Amino acid sequence: MNLSLLVIFPLVTALAVLLSKGLKQVRGFALLGSLTQLGLAGWLLKSYQAERASGNLTTNLFESNTPWFTSPLINYHIGVDGIAIAMILLTSVVVVAGILVSWSMEKMSKEYFFLLVLLSMGAYGFFISLDLFTMFFFLEIAVIPKFLLIGVWGSGDKVKSAMKLALMLMGGSALVFVGLLGIYYNVHSFETAEVIRVGLTSGVQKFFFPFAFIGFGIFAAMFPFHTWVPDGHASAPTAASMFLAGISMKLGGYGCLRMVSLMPDAANYYSWIIIILATIAIIYGAFATMMQTDLKYINAYSSISHCGFVILGIGMMNKTSMNGAVIQMVSHGLMTALFFAAIGMIYSRTHTRMVAQLGGLLKAMPFISTVFVIAGLCSLGLPGFSGFVAEMTVFMGSWQNPDTMYRFATVLSGASIVVTAVYILRATGRAIMGPISDEHALLADATWNEKLASVLLIAAILVIGIAPFLMNQLIVPSTDILFEHIGKAITIK
Amino acid sequence: MNEVPLEHILIVSTALFFIGMYGLFTRRNMITMLMSVELMLNSVNINFVAFNKYLYPEHLDGIFFSLFIITIAAAEAAVAIAIIINLYRSHRSIDVDDAAEMKF
Amino acid sequence: MMLNNMLSLLRQELVLSVLIFLLLFIKLGKDRSQASLSVIVNIALLINLLAGLWNMGEGELFSGMFHTNATIVFEKSILNLAVLLISMQSYSWLKSHDQVIEFYLLLFTSLLGMQFMISSGNMLMFYLGLEMSTIPLAAAANFDLTNRRSSEAAMKLIISSAFASGILLMGISFIYGTTGTLLFDALPSKLTGNPLQMFAFILFISGFAFKISAVPFHLWTADVYEGAPVAVTSFLSVVSKGAVIFVFVSVLYKVFQPLSHAWYLIISVLSVATILVGNLFALRQDNLKRFLAFSSIAQVGFILIGILSGDHQGAVSVIYFILIYVFSNLAAFGVISLVSALTGKEQITDYKHFYKTNPLLAWVLTIALFSLAGVPPTAGFFGKFFLLTAGASKGNYLLIAVAALNMVISFFYYLKVVKAMFMDENETPIEKLEIPAVSKLALYICVAGIILVGLASVVYEHINSLSI
Amino acid sequence: MQSYSYILWIPLLPLATFVVLGLFGRKYLKTSSGLIGTLSLLTSCLLSFKAAKQYFFVDGKVDGIYQKIEAFKHVWLQFSPGVSIDMGITIDPIAVMMLVVITSVSLMVHVFSLGYMKGEDRFATYYAFLSLFTFSMLGLVLSVNIFQIYMFWELVGVSSFLLIGYYFYKPSAVAASKKAFIVTRFADLGFLIGILVLGFYGGSLDISTLIQKFTTVQSPEYISITTASFLGMSMLTWGLTLVFVGGAGKSAMFPLHVWLPDAMEGPTPVSALIHAATMVVAGVYLVARLFPVFSMDAHALDIVTYTGVFSALLAAVIACTQTDIKRVLAYSTMSQIGYMMFSLGVSRYGGEAGLGYMASMFHLFTHAFFKSLLFLGAGSVIHLVHSNEMKDMGGLRKLMPITHIAFLIACLAIAGVPPFAGFFSKEEILTAALHENTLVYGVALFTAALTSFYMFRLYFSIFWNKEADVHGEHHGEGTWTMKLPLIILAICSVGAGFIGFPEFVTSDGAGIETHMDIASMAVPVSLSIVAIIIAAIMYKNANEKPAKVATAFGGFYRAAYKKFYVDEVYLFITKKIIFPLIGQPIAWADKHMVDGFMLMLGNLTAKISAAIKGMQSGKVQYYALYFFGGIIALSLLLIYIWK
Description:
The structure holds four protein chains of four kinds. Chain A is 78% helix and 3% strand. Chain A is built from 21 helices and two strands. By secondary structure, chain C is mainly alpha-helical. Chain C has one domain. In chain C, 76% of the residues lie in helices and 1% in strands. Chain C has helices at residues 2-9, 11-28, 34-53, 70-89, 91-95, 100-119, 123-141, 148-179, 195-211, 219-227, 230-255, 260-283, 288-308, 312-343, 354-357, 359-373, 379-391, 397-422, 437-455, 457-465, and strands at 59-61, 66-68. In chain C, strand 1 and strand 2 form a beta hairpin. The radius of gyration of chain C is 21 Å and the shape is globular. Chain C starts with a helix and ends with a helix. By secondary structure, chain D is mainly α. Chain D is built from 26 helices and four strands. In chain D, helix 2 (33-59) runs antiparallel to helix 3 and helix 16 runs antiparallel to helix 17. The longest helix of chain D has 46 residues, at 566-611. Chains in contact: A-C, A-D, B-C, B-D, C-D. Chains A and D meet through helix 7, helix 12, helix 14, helix 17 and helix 18 of A and strand 1, helix 5, helix 6 and helix 25 of D.
């Protein structure tokens, strides 16, 4: 199939949204577009599997390579492997859910949906890119819509949050940029495949890896560059929070993974630092979450903790842990989107997100409360949900290294699941269970669009949680290929 | 008759240049500042003529250059004085420190 | 034969000269309505622009004083395009002004000077072009005759540039003294790098640095930009700066190639200082014009980094960036000029909630600012990317890292404006403005340019195919 | 050998029920949900019996032992070659026994709840959760893979959480459910790390493979795990101990027992099912499942033993002082599980030495029946008097004769009075302990006496003593659905001891001979009877003696009444140490230091910007001066750096 469709369709949708009039048309187009996109992603998955089944074992499928600029040599080179497909599926699901959740966005609806669609376009483009320039291009495309979405439609101290988020992300991409230039001038190509084929010398890798990795790490909320996450998520409107945590933080994780595969020597050399930072993020994020009183802050900080697992999985530098990191990206994307959706639904009814002011919502809105609880349970890694699969894979992978520090990091990260249980249950216990206040007792339950959005996300979570082998089938061959290259670096050490 | 050595002329022109610069830095009256700039330009003229005469007498590059400098300096002075006159209309002063509204 | 050559090689300058004389004659005759005058002028400018697209090969005139080739024609076309856009955008402002013809006369004379400057093959020609472009601009800066600030700006411009000319000339005179020639072609072989020559070179570069407003030679920029009428400001920031940069590149790359080690060092220091100081001052501005002045200073810092490359790619990326910069900056100035002409408001705080009343203008300004900030998919992103890529070719990655991180600071102040337009509440936003069709067209062209010049690689490839 | 594939249906039926009731119950199946749940479970139960019959009687022993059969196995999640989570079904004696226990007790609870929970608002949800629990528990006992156990382990944890918090509007129920989940989660962390240790050294997560590798002394896996050590303990000990920590958490062993008494906030039938008969013995089951490996490591077994025996004693002492009848039962559960634990701990693998193992499983089996009977009985009582407190009860034997008789039988069973079920199993445990460790035997004996005392304290306080003030109209013992389970369970409590248990369930599957000699029986039985008599004297009629005894014990009584302040210690650790000393500083640091640093960068930029603004003074002469300064700076640059 033609992968460019994944970028063109959002573009067409965005234009259609711009040209349409009134909330009804706008959201109709947006939904139609995102559903098409979901269909495309499904079709992509199907054709990918068919292609693989027919014995096509090349690293990336559906490649197409169009020259763009000749000097510096930049190609619009696209293609997907299993990991990219997993991320594309994640994106398409979250986008549909996000658009459904913002169904009744009255304020400047045209611009709102336009920006949402634009953001999704950036994500799709990022995931299908095989050329580092194209990748970087799409990465930055996804930043500005976030700024506007938070700043215009957000709540609370929205402008400050939007500013902080945009600046930190720009800082991240500036670092990425330096890393990319370093790669370019040493292999004279932005092509990932070419970089892997030619290979960078160890010294070059050690110099440029920190730039690129920290740059993407900022996107992935790596400690101590995570501070945009809590404010940004908390101030964003619901769909933007979902996109932010569900999609755009994944851009960072995915980028980190790619950087490791391009510069394995350096990744290996610095892995202990990555692991320490990731472990700190996991534990620190979990404890910080415990102290939060605002539902959105709770989820935002828990995202820091959960995304720590992605970094941890990558930093552990073995196949299993990297699989875990990929699964964790998908899982966290879905789970946190669901969580934000639930919080948004609660907030739109009660007009408060403070845990202390809520209570007993299960009585008034059983559906929303159930969604909240399911999101919580997924977050704390209950078997049957995707979070469990992801975290366990990371643990199994990280335990493979018998070094004491690695062990210690694994145990500490493992301890976070207890803390996670504490904060999830505290929030659930206060907000969902317990006695309900009179003013909340008569609030209405979810509407059809909210239900549909939740069901879609829950279904995706359950598919991964109940049948993880499907996910594994998709990503493991790709991580194997990825690791062939990385593995060499480790044996050299 | 002993020719004046090039170095002497260069010393004069350099001195003139810095005198002009000093005037530009210290005078508050805009017209005086303009005159200081003319001094600087004239020092350049001396340079050109001297170099031409002493070092490269086969072409007249330097001399022509100084001719053009003189012409353009005149044009510049004309425009500058026009501007200063206009400035005087609004500011009622040609003290350069009075025309420092826009800053930081 | 000679005449033929003159006609084809000098066509852009000739069209402009004819236009200038035409305007003079019109001025002598009876008063014409401003509208018809604009039409005439704009059509003439368009012809001039089209004249540039017509490839007539390269050649020399006046025994090497004037030379031209495809690149130079392209550079001139960029300037012509910019002037056309400025002319279209200043429609509303000129409508209320009596001395329309004088305005155009000043602008075109300056443009003509620039074109000669770009084509110059001799220090004398270069100097003449430079002065010809500067002196009318000083007069143009004072075009709001009754405005205190306008006068102040003009005064600052003329005195500073006279001083800068003095320095530049001093440099040229020493170069002449040490080499004995003023011809660009003859210079490289005679450059030995002796101390006096180096000092002369520093003086020479300072003169350039003044014109492109590199730190610490930039101080006039903000005041002049703020005080001058918007149209003049945009001319100063885009056309004048662009022209000097074109010359700077070719002079550095061709004439001073033997001293490239020296200027590499100088330019790296200047570029960092320029980016930093430009950014730090831009942070604290409230006046949009002054804000754009500092932002353009920072942009120059980036251009200097591109220049560092010292090879074909560096020159290409600089020309490409100037083209993008024309579109981006003129889109921003276009909006500001409209608002300023119709309401007189120029402060960032005036633009609060601008989006509510003027969504089109707000979007244009936003896109322009994003392009200046270097955000994809706007062309500014590509421009900056290529500049920094070119700059990195010498392996000075720390410089690149500093520059890249400075983009974050610049991002902050660009976003500040966007924030004001979209996010800040305001009781009395700027009312809904009637935009003249000409200005609207100019804005559309700018936006189209901002989007297409980057994404459609054909533009870049064309520049890349030119021999520099 | 016949196929066992139908066993798959045993857990799947409750799962299907959960899905159906969970999705549609609330809206469409409000009243019929109880019936649906019960019927589906009845089918499961029958299938379990069929499986038991087939396994023990039809197929029988092969080569003198009951074989372990993997009826079904599917790779669920492959981590790396050889290491995967498999979903599957193992059938061996303990699995089959657990199948029978779980399905039958669960069935009884389903039936009982039809009456007990009638009219509840979330009736369908309740049955959905019950089904979920049953599914998870069945999945747990049938696991082929240690990670599979862990998964279902978590699932039973969450179903327990949901059911304890069933009355979600009661803050105490919410707190209890939270506590239960978090404490067991903490223990599960140990379990998880234990799995990682065992899996890493064993190169597999499959239970049979692990057992096979770690019980072969020559295998490289065994050698590597015993030679590797951390903090002076071999990795085998570490692994097993950590796994045991998980088991201890779920089975409420000291010091992780604090959640169990609070868990009584859930509906009483739930307590009967989860917190008496099935889930809480999961820890015991886990140790039994890995027993061949445990038996290779004396240290791990010692830890199991002493934890078990201490918990048994501690719980029994506390049980004597509690006044909430469900809490008494909860501590009694904890105490009985302690029995099972130390019984495993004193056991060895294979043959006669495996007596403890057999006894433990036997006790697990009998305990399930009489303890769920006790809880259901207590449920009936609570249903009648609407209170959990002993002081609100008394003289109920006339009002609820069936309950009374059933409760009495259960009390006799737990007290170990022949010929009731508990007698047999407890006797085996004591015998096993006597052979292995006299200290443990002594404590166990004392605990047995205490057990009889507090059980009969409970019995007399409820059914005798002063007449309770049951006002006005009441519904007696409720519907037949509430009585029938009592009767059935009472019959089981009487008869379960007579099953030839040693023949069926042993450590190696071979069946052992047990000897009941009067001499060893006499001591515990007579102690029990003495304790019952003391209880009768103190509590049969209302009098001052209990108060006097309480005063006589003084501080010790108060400490026991306060559950030895374990809860307070936990509260201290969480509220006074973790929250203020770890959580808050981190939250503070994040806001003020990490984020503050980023803000500082911003402010610093602004400060510098303000500091250098003087450069742009507005005076054109200064501009020229700067210009000149720039030239000088550039000259210096070239002079000093370039040349």
